[in-house]
Structures are given as C-alpha cells and as structure tokens.
Amino acid sequence: MKEPGKDPLESRGSDLPSFSLGVRSSGVLLHLTSLPGRFGSGDVGPEATRFADFLASAGQRWWQMLPIGPPGYGDSPYSAESAFAGSPLLIDLEALGRDGLLRPHELEVAEPFPEDHVDFARSRALREDRLARAFAAFKRRRDPVEIQAFEAFVADNQSWLEDWALFRAVKRAHGDVAWTEWPAPLKYRDPNALVAASERYAGAVDLARFEQHIFAQQWRSLRVACAARGVALMGDLPIFVAHDSADVWQRRDLFQLDAAGQPAVIAGVPPDYFSATGQRWGNPLYRWDRLRDEGYAWWIARLRSTLARFDAVRLDHFIGFVRAYAIPASSPTAKIGSWQPGPGAELFDAARAALGPLPLVAEDLGVVTPAVTALRERFGFPGLRVLQFAFGNDPQAATFLPEAYPRDTVVYTGTHDNDTTAGWFHDHGGHASERSLEQITREQLAALTYLGGDEGEIHWSMIAAAEASVADLTIVPAQDLLGLGSEARMNRPGTTAGNWGFRLRPGELDEATAERLGALTQLHGRAPHEPEDEEGGG
User: Which of 162, 211, 363, 427 is flagged as catalytic?
Assistant: First the structure.
C-alpha cells in the first residue's frame, strides 16, 4: 500500500513526462482485458508491464486501450456502470497478495481459464470474491497509514465516489437489475431512503470505495511504469453513458428521460457500413440545455477524471458534439430517427478554460458534416482515418487513402469495431458478413492493386502503408500485428453477444514481431524522441 498523498484523480500527472499528439509516432491498440493472465482476463498487473516492454522494444510511443470503467450490459467497456469509476475487474490480484491482503491459497485457480478468450462470468466471480477477501484483510489489519490513505482518497473523490459506491451496493443487493426496477424510494433517490440504504449496505459501500482506492493506486503504478519506458497511454471516452449507470441514476435531470426514468429517445446512428438497419445503442441523450446552465460542470469533471489517467484521450463519436441521432425509444431499429444539436464549441471552450490544453483525438467517423470538421479544427483535435475504409464503396473512401491525410491525423488499419485486417481481406461473405461477395472481391483487388505485396501478409502491407503515411500518428490493433482472422475480432457493432472477449496468448507478441514493427517504425521516421523534449498535446 502507498503512503497517503494527493489522489491521482486530482492531478493531470504533472510529475510525469508530457507526450505530444503532434510528434510523428506510432502505437498499438490493445485493451487491458485482452492481455494474458491467470485470473481469466488481463489487468494492470505484470502482463501490462510486459506489454509496455514490448511497445518500447518495437519503438512504439502509444498504447491505446478501450474505456476502463466497470463494464455493464454485454460486458461492453462502452456501456460502463460509471463514467468516473475504474473497473475493479482490472485490479491486479497478485499485487494484493504481495501487499499481504490475499494469502497464497487465495491466489490459486482451481481450474485454468481459457487463454484465447475472456470467460467474463467466471472471471468476474473469482475477482469479486478475492477483492472482498482483500477488503476483509484490510479491515482486520487496521494499519493507520493505509487507513489514512484510504480515507484521503474517499474525501478527495466524494463527488462521484459516494453515489457510485451506493449504486454498486444497491444494484448487487437487488440481483443486478437496472436501477429503474429498484424500489421507488431508491429509484427516485428519496433522501431518507438513500440514508437508510447507506446504513443497510454499509459493508458493500465500503468495499466499493476500497476497490476504487486500490484501482487508483495500481493505475498510478502502471502509468509510472509506462512513462519510464517512454510509452504514453491513450484512453477512450464514449460521448454517451449507459442508462443503467450511477451517472444517470445520480443526475436524471441531465438526460432525456420520461417520468419513470426510461429514455424518451436513445442514441445510435442511421444505416451505415456496419448495419443496414443502423445501430441502436440504447444510451440516453443529454439535456444540453441543463448542462449549459451549469457551465458544463459535469462534463468538465468527466474530462478531468479521464485526462488524469491518460496522456491523451480519443473522443468516441465526435460528431455527436455537433449533432446526435435520436431514435424513438420504442423503435426496434435505427432506421427512424432525427438529428438533435449538440453543444458544439461551447463545451470545449468551457473545458479548455477549466482544464487548460486538451490532448484529445476526435473520432470523426460517420456522417462528417462541415460543422464537424470546423469544430475539430477550431480546437486542433486530430481526426481519424481507417485504412480498411479506403478500398470500398463508401462515398468518403478516397479520404481514407494515405495520400489524402492531413498531418493532424491518427490512422488505423482498423479499429475495435472493424474486423481484423486479415479477417476483412479474407472474408468469404455469407450471413455474418457486412459485405456482399461481389463487394469483398472488389475491395480485395483494390487493396492489392494499391498496396502490392503478398495477400498472405496483407496485414503487414496495410501496416506499412499506414506507417509510411504523412499522418502524425499510426495505431495498429495488436491482432493485425499477428495476422489474426475474424475469430480475434473485438466487436461487431449492432450485436450484443460474443464481443470484447479476445485475448492474447502468453508470449504471442514475440521478439520477432517487435523487431519487424520496430524496423518499419524506424524506416518511416516514427521512432520515439525523448519524452522530456516534447510539449503537451492540445
């Protein structure tokens, strides 16, 4: 356990080196749960540090990951139960053993977990049990220094921590049903009911606080370890939050809900590349007028929390800050909807005034209007390009070719929503495909004609094209480094089952892969500079 001091969430990491998005560099996209580990999923433990070693040896500057909040519906990191809390499932249990909070036999696993995918239910059950045991040991030990650090953390983060801890405790006590199904006094946050629940579930509330305290300590350790290796962390901030979250329960007035607390309209996108019926995400839309009246304080707090954990942050669905697609909550698909205006520059002006430079990346994929481009350029946020999209019939396909990139761009071979590059190229069509066989054949020919090379190593041809581009930053999914197929896909938009479970096998990212990636990085002038010579992004 660490000495008490200023909580990590209250600092922008001023004692760590700064990393600029404007420096020519490259990185790898890999979510923490996709790391190896004997407790069923990756976490912030030794495998995370080993991955940082891999990145450093390959000349990579950036490690991008998905949102790190407590996953909710469908185990999705984009449907977190809190916009502020860290996922307790990412806590390193072995570190708790080294701290004496777990005994050796409590770190044993009776039956090994699968190495190539996450068994979410079983891993969650084991990890939650061990965290409860660690908290019991913490209370028994009664170390005054540890208690002081814990109490300081609770005091520093009470604006979000208290509601999160009570939400988690009440939700677990009611069989994990949505907050809209809780008894009315709790559902509607009757003050007397909240006090009574805090007392009734005091043990579970304290456990939730403890989990966040440990998460913050361990995250800080990972951040320091990565910085020491010259590796910067890029996070991911979804524009919308989950309806079944502490955030919506705590501040229903900030969201478009009906009298029963259900969404009146929900977020999504119209029919697109991924789905002929569009995507019906289910998130409630904001009441931007209420947020504006409060000076966007809730959003500023959210950005402050996220930027305290990362060197830069990808803003998911950036177009939603200009306009958001509102789908009637009763509609079974996203074919019917209307556009609602977003906050535009007002929000980012307020955030910049409160937080200073904003090292943000704008995920400007989708229907990019001139207003979206103008907003991104006004604040100097790099935009995104996806190389897979350059060879299809998307009306914007030409803008995804490397010769069309402006320098302030982050280029991906594919994102977490795409198939892997090998899976995309070798797709055989059929009901599970997003493309017809004719379309696949055209894209294969266009890609081979443009990229050259061997179709058996199409993933490396794509990586080389991205690295050679003028874009300031190249990000490659770990699956593409290994040439993995569709079985390693992270997410299939519009579906709710079978996603997010990809895992690397131990040692799969080996020295030969690091050398090959490092050679490309060096060849195309993306080898890292000393971090202390850079200026902060934004």
Answer: 363
The active-site residue, picked from 417, 427, 443, 480, is: 417
d(CA 331, CA 333): 6
Tell me the mean pLDDT in the region 43-61.
98
Would you give the DSSP letter of residue 118? -
The candidate with the shortest Cα–Cα distance to 263, out of 338, 177, 180, is 180
Rounded Cα distance, 468 and 470, in Å:
7
Our measurement of the distance from residue 59's CA atom to the centroid of its chain's CA atoms, rounded to an integer in Å, reads 23
Q: How many Cβ atoms sit within 10 Å of the Cβ of residue 290? A: 14
Buried b (16+ CB within 10 A) or exposed e, 500-527: bbbbbeeeebeeebbeebbebbeebebe
Q: Do residues 403 and 465 touch, judged by C-beta distance below 8 A? A: no
Q: What per-residue string of b and e applies to 424-441 under the rule 16 or more CB within 10 Å gives b? A: bbbbeeeeeebbeeeebe
- Cα(361)–Cα(383) distance, integer angstroms: 6
Q: Which of 139, 203, 138 is nearest to 168 (CA)?
A: 203
Q: What is the pLDDT of residues 341-373, one digit of tens each?
A: 999 999 999 999 999 999 999 999 988 999 999
Token digits for 282? 């289910």
Closest CA to 264 of 177, 340, 163: 340
Nearest residue to 116 via CA among 491, 484, 509, 505:
505
Question: Which residue blocks in 176-260 are alpha helix, DSSP H?
Answer: 184-187, 191-200, 202-228, 246-250
d(CA 450, CA 221): 44
Pick the closest to residue 356 from 35, 13, 5 (CA basis): 13
Identified catalytic residue from 7, 75, 92, 316:
316
What does the block give as tokens for 334?
């996203």
Q: Can 311 be counted among the known catalytic residues?
A: no
Q: What is the pLDDT of residues 226-248, one digit of tens each?
A: 999 999 999 999 999 999 999 99
* Bridge-based pairing state of the strands 323-328 and 338-341: antiparallel
Is 289 marked active-site? no
d(CA 249, CA 253): 9
Residue 272 annotated to the active site: no
